[in-house]
Write a sequence for this structure.
């Protein structure tokens, strides 16, 4: 059956923190097919119900491997495990996994899942009336799978071992490394579909259809059934054909009615990439060789660099040649390191719309008169001031600990507890960032962030954690801070769970 499932552990983490290609893990919600409500665990008493109207923190579950082959563990946002007992009890308050916590995923022909307990009973129910005491699948025992990951990703094909990117108004899987905004994809969940369907939106905001054509507005041909195959996925259209890479240019379109390596894809984290210029406006580059120099006036892939932040906060910079910045003799900065070690770690100091870099030798990186970068400064020099501009987030989706960032109705008020992420346009000018939706810009008033300004209002981004950034309001000099009730205010003074935003 095409819907074979394999799980990984944790939430949006990697098997190895230093992997260059960051494989996303499966966190998801279970939406009851009959009622449209989500399986929920309440904070008080770890109570379970199927009352959740949308996918938020309480409705998020993580799948882990179980000791029995083919079985899974299902862990809640509170770190407790679901279990089913022999008497039909279905609860979610187990502190540690045991035999009763093991579940078998039974995929259905329509793409939904059934959850079978270790005793062979199907979990089902509505409201607070939950049971796992029947071996015949009931109508309220089918679950729509809704991935809970951040939707902006890169996509690589198992057979071609290349990345998907936008080229000539088509999606082609022929890029060696996902470099630039053309490799950014948004993985869209069409929740209006009764069984849940997924689609791909390119960086030009067009949707991939089954024929390979990109459409301005998604129709039924843009909706695909998601299949899991180990840590890879497949996407199947309504006719039963799978998305594949076709022809010499590896164009994405449906092709065959069975899954081979051509039809398997892997979702990977989209790392932030930047252009960097010095105080003279010259772009940092490796176009001329291995040494990093600020000596270019135009931008190619050689002037784009990937900033990688490990899970323990260490920052490294990688070139389009997959080599890391490192410190050599005389403090010279070159992009020659095959792997990121402590020698390649850079401390990025953010100063509103500019930055300074401190290399692993403790010295500030400066741009010399010939453009060459060298870690020889003390930070007082004008030559130690740089401007970083993110280039692979022309559209931006933000998520905090209470949910996604979105707009509340016609008021334009920006809230942080939405179940689906709003797509904002991100503009940048000399390190100043402007967020826009439908021609209106973000601004801050007495009640918080609102998207109703006619003119751009600058914010500063600080990329201080893995996949997360601080956002500072330029006027108040305060970080944007989220509240559980959805409030979004410029009140933060440091990095914490309420001020860090997954992008």
């Amino acid at each position: 059956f095409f819907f074979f499932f394999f799980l990984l552990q944790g939430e949006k983490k990697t098997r190895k923190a230093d992997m260059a290609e960051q494989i996303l893990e499966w966190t998801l919600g279970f939406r009851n097919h009959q009622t449209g409500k989500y399986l929920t665990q309440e904070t008080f008493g770890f109570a379970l119900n199927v009352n959740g109207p949308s996918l938020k923190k309480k409705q998020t579950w993580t799948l882990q491997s179980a000791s029995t082959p083919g079985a899974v563990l299902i862990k809640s946002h509170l770190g407790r495990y679901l279990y089913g007992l022999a008497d039909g009890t279905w609860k979610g308050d187990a502190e540690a996994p045991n035999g009763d916590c093991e579940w078998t995923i039974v995929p259905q022909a329509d793409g939904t899942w059934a959850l079978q307990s270790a005793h062979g009973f199907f979990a089902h129910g509505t409201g607070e009336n939950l049971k796992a005491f029947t071996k015949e699948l009931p109508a309220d025992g089918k679950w729509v799978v809704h991935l809970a990951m951040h939707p902006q990703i890169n996509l690589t094909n198992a057979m071609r071992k290349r990345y998907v990117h936008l080229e000539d108004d088509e999606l082609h899987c022929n890029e060696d490394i996902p470099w630039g905004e053309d490799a950014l994809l948004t993985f869209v969940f069409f929740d209006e579909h009764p069984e849940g369907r997924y689609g791909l939106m390119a960086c030009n905001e067009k949707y991939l259809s089954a024929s390979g054509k990109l459409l301005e507005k998604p129709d039924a041909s843009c909706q695909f059934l998601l299949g899991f195959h180990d840590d890879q996925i497949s996407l199947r259209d309504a006719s039963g054909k799978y998305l594949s890479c076709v022809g010499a240019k590896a164009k994405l379109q449906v092709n065959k009615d069975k899954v081979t390596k051509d039809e398997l894809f892997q979702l990977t984290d989209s790392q932030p990439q930047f252009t960097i210029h010095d105080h003279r406006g010259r772009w940092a580059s490796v176009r001329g060789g291995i040494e990093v120099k600020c000596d270019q006036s135009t931008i190619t892939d050689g002037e784009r660099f990937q900033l990688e932040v490990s899970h323990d906060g260490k920052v490294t910079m990688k070139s389009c040649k997959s080599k890391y910045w490192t410190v050599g003799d005389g403090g010279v900065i070159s992009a020659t390191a095959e792997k990121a070690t402590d020698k390649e770690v850079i401390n990025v100091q953010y100063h509103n719309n500019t930055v300074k870099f401190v290399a692993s030798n403790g010295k500030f990186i400066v741009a010399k008169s010939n453009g060459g970068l060298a870690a020889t400064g003390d930070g007082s020099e004008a030559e130690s001031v740089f401007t970083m501009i993110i280039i692979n987030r022309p559209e931006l989706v933000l998520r905090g600990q209470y949910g996604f960032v979105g707009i509340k109705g016609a008021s334009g008020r920006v809230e942080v507890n939405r179940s689906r992420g709003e797509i904002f346009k991100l503009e940048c000018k000399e390190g100043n960032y402007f967020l826009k939706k439908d021609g209106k810009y973000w601004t801050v008033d007495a009640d918080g962030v609102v998207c109703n300004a006619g003119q751009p209002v600058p914010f500063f981004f600080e990329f201080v954690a893995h996949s997360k950034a601080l956002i500072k309001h330029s006027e108040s000099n305060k970080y944007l801070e989220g509240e559980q009730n959805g409030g979004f205010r410029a009140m933060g003074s440091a990095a914490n769970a309420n001020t860090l935003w997954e992008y």
